Amino acid sequence: MSKLKLIIKREYLAKVRNKSFVVMTFLSPVLMVGMIVLIAYLAKLNDSENRVITVLNQSDYFSNAFNATETISYIEFKELNLETARDSALAMGSYGLLYVPKAKNLEATTKGVVLYTKESPVSYVLNTLETIFQNRLRQSRLTKFGVSSKQFADIDEDFEMVTATFEGEQNVKGINEIKAGIGGAFGYLIMMFIIIYGGFVMRSVIEEKTTRIIEVIISSVKPFQLMLGKIIGTSLAGITQFAIWIFSASLLLLVAMFLMDIDLAALSAGPGIANNAMGGVAHLQAGMDNDMQMYASEILKIPWLLLIVSFVLYFVLGYLIYSSIYAAIGAAVDNETDTQQFIFPIILPLMLAIYVGFFSVFSNPHGPIAVGFSLFPLTSPIVMLMRLPGGIGEGGVPFWQFLVSILLLIVTFLAIVWLAAKIYRVGILMYGKKPTYRELFKWLKY
Amino acid sequence: MNHILVAENVSKQFGEHTALSNISLEIPKNCIYGLLGPNGAGKTTLIRIINQITHPDTGSVYFNGKPLGPEHIATIGYLPEERGLYKSMKVGEQALYLAQLKGLSKTEAKKRLKYWFDRLEIGDWWNKKIQELSKGMAQKIQFIVTVLHEPELLIFDEPFSGFDPINANRIKDEILSLKEKGTSIIFSTHRMESVEELCEYITLLHKSEKILDGKLSDIKKAYKNNIFNVGLKLPKEKNGTLASLEERYRITDQEYNKTENQLNFTLQLPDDRTTQALDLLKEKGNLNHFKEVIPSVNDIFIQTVNAKINE
Fold first, then answer.
1. CA distance between the termini of chain A
2. Is B106 in the A-facing interface, judged by CB distances under 8 Å?
3. Which residues of A touch B83 (CB under 8 A)?
4. Are strands A96-100 and A51-57 parallel, antiparallel or unpaired?
5. What is the pLDDT of residue A165?
């Protein structure tokens, strides 16, 4: 046992003291925050572009119809013919010229409307303009049927479906997606960790082989001890890295927010304000606030403790399974370039789990595909975590599925570690040739 | 209990390939035991079995009279042929780690390492990384790590490879002094001259089989063929001298130095009685040397292996 501790300590220190580890650990959060800031900045830059539309309005139907928005402003041309208007619109560099002709009635006017632009117009400009004409048309047609403009406003009011569970509790739409998203983040974290740190385990095994220290060490300890110590030591280094990341990333994010003068309170109130501006109806605002509260309470209702405990559980089991396969691969080859043919088959189930998770679990967390993949041990750590935010038991993952997936994982873990240890034991003393799958199979029988 | 290690009918198979077939050995305490054989003979497999890195398919190994088990790991020191150290780890740290894996406490390991580092004059390497050292320097550290836990049985596989002649001698002296202190040593090498110098017992493996073993002096005795190197100073021209000798004995490698009138040759006697031949030679001239040819380990090695191949 004390030998295992020694090995774990050495592997941990070797990893943590490594220059690239230090650089990666401290650079990654900076890069991450930098990316977020950059994306936010670019998005803002993109949104804030104001497009100027010149309007040549010869009709009376649309005299006050064009009101500037945040992204589109209008300049009206008066007393010009179409030719001159087009030329001057182009000369002054406006985004486009909207031509509204004079005609005997509204229907005829709208038929003659043309938008001239240099290239085909972006969709939101087109949508905004179309909406203006559509609304005007609808209003006038309805008036013909004897509907007053007050009545029209009433008809036009938004409708939103209220959904509820059979217990009468009000449901929030999109909460399934949010839950799956949270689980997906956990699952994605597991996949990244397995790929990155499994690779570390593999390279560490290859290093021991190429430096030929392996034979010295296994004359003192059992190969299995060495393999286990390596896996545990490397994963502890990984956990250290994650801890530093989460800590420093949140710290940096706070600092960045402070520097950019973004108020957290304003941020959380943001959607409400936007809705207010759009809806313009007082009780709708109240409804939105209510929604926000419901979302918040739903997110709080996610069984976080269960999620974190099972994250750790699935993480440990999944990581142990995959990293022992990585260790076996490292033992089987002489250098990293030979690992490709063996690595692809183990990355495959991980990718599959992520894609199945995103495409199937998001839309239907308890459908047959989601259930199947959350039981299959090579994908369950990722897929099950995506389902778990819905809880265990009624309305969530049935308890038996949770239990079966854990049991299957444990059984697979024991089997894989046993097989990997066999390949590892033989492989670390084999030099010179790149083994085939058939040879690996033979090693199992030595 | 005069044997540190006894192997009984040990066999090992890797798939289709037989690495060891039915090997039995007895390694006496406090001696240097040479384990010889061409490449692929099974030496490394046997050593790995003794180190419990692999396990025999059949047969058993006894250490100090008891079946070999995990408790013996700390009493064996092994310097493999394919050896290395962690490149980016510091020398001292690495030596401490390996010593602790052999069961030494940290303080004890430090104390002994200091002694050995001073002894081999490498005290100032403690904080260097292996990648900054030359191959020979790294070998010294590996040697120290192998002997540090004062094992009862030491196994050296090609211990001198990578050393310059001065340091190789240094290590040879250390091996001999370890033997003086009572350690039993298994010594595996291709360098026959060091076998000649160091080993009291040898075993010769060939294609997974043991083809020769025993005390080196006994083996040499068994392999000598009553061949003698002779030097004769002739009174005058050699004419006829050689011819008259050849009538009675088989003569080879003759050479004649005209200015000195010196005749050297190799003489094959029918048995180990030399009186008759000496009397005859004395008549011919002034006998200035007469020496029995003792076969070198190298000769024995080649002769035995070739005989086996021709079988």
1. 26
2. no
3. 212-213, 215-216
4. parallel
5. 65
How many Å apart are CA A83 and CA A99, to the nearest integer? 11
State whether B100 and A211 contact (CB < 8 Å): no
- Would you say the pTM of this structure is higher than 0.80? no
Superfamily of domain A51-137: Periplasmic binding protein-like II (3.40.190.10)
Q: Which of A208, A431, A442 minimises the CB distance to B15?
A: A442
Instruction: Provide the shortest C-alpha distance from residue B198 to chain A (in Å).
Output: 24
**Type of residue at B145:** V
Query: Which B positions 184-243 lie with beta carbon below 8 A of chain A?
Result: none
Mutation site, A13, A208, A216, interface B, largest B CB count within 10 A: A216
Q: What share of chain A is helix, strand, coil (3-state, %, to 5)?
A: 70, 5, 25
User: Among A56-70, A226-240, B217-231, which stretch is predicted with the lowest mean pLDDT?
Assistant: A56-70
- Give B80 to chain A, closest Cα distance, Å: 7
Residue B69 CB-density burial (10 A; 0-12 exposed, 13-18 middle, 19+ buried) = exposed
What is this model's ipTM?
Answer: 0.79
How do beta strands B32-36 and B58-63 pair? unpaired
Please state, in angstroms and rounded to a whole number, the distance separating the CA atoms of residues A93 and A52.
9
What residue spans in chain A does CATH classification 3.40.190.10 cover?
Answer: 51-137
Domains, chain B: 3-221 (3.40.50.300), 225-292 (3.30.70)
Which residues are paired to B232 by β-bridges?
A: B263, B287
User: Are A213 and A340 contacting, i.e. CB atoms less than 8 angstroms apart?
Assistant: no
